[in-house]
Specification:
Blueprint: H1 8-25, H2 30-37, H3 41-49, H4 57-67, H5 71-78
Helix pairs in contact: 1-3, 2-3, 2-4
């Protein structure tokens, strides 16, 4: 199976996720957090550095639990910035 290349937005979202997880990990070791989450330290390292920008949902969920983060926090932090939408203004009939 050929994987389609990631967009710049997807890579940036992965980097934001990695920064958030690294910040939440604080002084705890990768080995400790990875063990609690049930993943390998190498997987955590790849996610934190952005080398794995699209980790599986259940991996992210397990890391959120291990780090005391809510999925809402992750979603808000990792969401792309809002795009301004132009709403058409009705023109009154003359």
């Amino acid at each position: 199976m050929v994987r389609t290349p990631l967009t710049a937005e997807e890579r940036e979202r992965g980097e934001r996720l990695g920064r958030l997880l690294r910040q939440a990990r604080g002084d705890r070791s990768m080995v400790e957090v990875a063990a609690v989450a049930g993943i390998s330290p190498e997987t955590l390292r790849k996610i934190e550095t952005g080398r794995a920008p699209t980790p599986a949902f259940f991996t992210v969920a397990a890391l959120a639990v291990a780090l005391g983060l809510s999925m809402d926090e992750l979603a808000v932090h990792c969401a792309p910035p809002p795009v301004p939408v132009q709403v058409p203004v009705p023109v009154p009939a003359a």
